[in-house]
Write a structure and sequence with these properties.
The complex is a heterodimer. By secondary structure, chain A is α+β, with helices and mostly antiparallel strands. Chain A has two helices and six strands; from the N terminus they run βαββββαβ. In chain A, the strands form two sheets. In chain A, strands 2-5-1-6 form a four-stranded antiparallel β-sheet, covered by helices on one side. In chain A, strands 3-4 form a two-stranded antiparallel sheet. Helices cover about 80% and strands about 0% of the residues of chain B. The chains are: A alpha+beta, B mainly alpha.
């Protein structure tokens, strides 16, 4: 089986930011994403998710390393300072690299 | 009926008592929790039902009767941030962002407070203009736009521009958010269908309404109750503001309602709308466009102070004020 290295970018942020983050992904050249509602706590307190708006969302995308870097740099420049969020990339291996 | 009986009949309604139960559940750290999808479902039901009812009422009364009070309501919503902002800045010593954010919340409206008020009026057999839900629909957005502009510091040369993606997303949410869309959509449908349409959906949208509202207020009680702990963080000024602002705005709404020719019930509703503070549309829009503002201030004030105040004491108070004014 032939596997190809790719980057998985994971972003966990305030639910209101979902559309903005997806916009950043699209503009940075990522193809598609997966999002799910999550809850938890962090340095800026608890995200109880009892109102939809006070919840968190986790957004994941698999992309080429250059795209992953571009995404993280834009998030850093535009959103990190103002919002409760974390973002990181990790190594993954996929079978069909042209899909991403 | 005097003020005390009005307050009593309001406090002993299922809706308010279920709210109290919700607060108790949250404070006692009960494991009771509504699934998020139920919360959303109940919201959709309540907004659709009052939108549709309002539309049928517009069909009967004619648009000619609605436009003036609706315009007045809209104007009031947009103006409220203009005087709350300087008060919050000067007396409350809030930052530009925080003052703008809180002003947006207080100018915008809470649908559930409005619905609780219609419930109260029904309970005491006080007639009101059913098309008042049109006021609810038009009062949500103007204040958010004004508040966000203030929070962005336009008074001090700050920038409010559509090239800011936060502002762009927030404005779209404020003008065409799910609440406004459902409410106005259902209203258009109701006004097209009229009374005959109402007969066909009455069994779903009217008969179970009180029960759904009670259930929703149980959830709201838990949401508000969980934020009671934050009261310590917001400071004495905001505690006082959270009660004074609705009183002042409520009386302004009642006066304006009488002035544009609404009945006692209708003026009460306009008062309640002016007094209410948004805790759904405004927080999301403000968070996107004015991220420097601390959401704990505006959300705690709107949800843990003003909302309980309005649904317990505010509604009967504004009703009595409307009666006095008409007498």
């Amino acid at each position: 089986m032939n596997l190809h290295p790719m980057k998985l970018v994971t972003i966990i942020c305030e639910a209101v930011l979902e559309e903005r983050v997806v916009e950043v992904l699209r503009e940075s050249g990522a193809h598609g994403h997966t999002a799910f509602d999550v809850r938890g706590s962090g340095r800026q307190g608890e995200r109880s998710a009892d109102l939809v708006e006070s919840g968190n969302v986790q957004i994941e995308v698999i992309a080429k390393p250059s795209v992953a870097t571009a995404v993280l740099e834009r998030l850093h420049r535009e959103l990190f300072a103002a919002y409760a969020m974390v973002a990181y990339e990790s190594e993954v291996h996929v079978m069909r690299p042209d899909k991403f | 009926m005097d003020l005390l009986t009005a307050i009593q009949s309001n406090l002993l309604s299922p809706a308010v008592l279920f709210f109290v139960l919700g607060v108790f559940a949250a404070v006692s750290k009960s494991d009771l929790k509504f699934p998020e999808s139920l919360y959303t479902t109940l919201t959709i039901y309540l907004l659709t039902a009052i939108g549709f009812k309002g539309g049928v009422a517009i069909n009967e009364a004619g648009l000619g009767a609605v436009w003036l009070p609706a315009l007045a309501a809209m104007g009031l919503g947009g103006l409220i941030p203009l005087w709350t902002y300087p008060v919050l800045r000067k007396l409350g010593k809030f930052s530009v962002a925080d003052a703008g954010a809180i002003a947006a919340h207080y100018g915008s409206v809470s649908a559930v407070t409005f619905i609780a008020a219609t419930n109260f009026l029904k309970g005491i057999h006080e007639p009101f203009e059913n098309y008042a839900s049109a006021f609810l629909a038009v009062m949500e957005s103007p204040a958010i736009i004004v508040g966000v502009m203030l929070g962005k510091g336009v008074l001090g040369g700050g920038k409010f521009s559509l090239s800011d993606p936060g502002v762009r997303h927030a404005l779209r949410d404020a003008v065409l958010g799910k609440g406004v869309l459902l409410l106005i959509g259902a209203m258009v449908i109701g006004s097209l269908c009229g009374k005959r349409g109402m007969e066909s959906v009455e069994g779903f949208f009217v008969t179970p309404f009180q029960g759904v509202l009670a259930l929703f207020l149980l959830e709201m009680g838990m949401v508000a109750g969980r934020r009671l702990g934050d009261l310590k963080k917001v400071g004495l000024f905001l505690l006082i503001f959270g009660v004074t602002a609705p009183l002042v705005h409520g009386l302004a709404g009642v006066l304006l309602g009488g002035w544009v020719g609404l009945s006692v019930g209708g003026a009460t509703l306009l008062g309640v709308l002016a007094a209410s503070a948004s805790y759904i549309a405004a927080p999301a829009a403000v968070r996107l466009s004015v991220p420097e503002a601390n959401p704990t201030f505006s959300l705690t004030a709107a949800l843990a102070i003003t909302f309980p105040f309005n649904i317990s004491l505010g509604i009967p108070l504004f009703y009595e004020a409307a009666k006095l004014l008409h007498a």
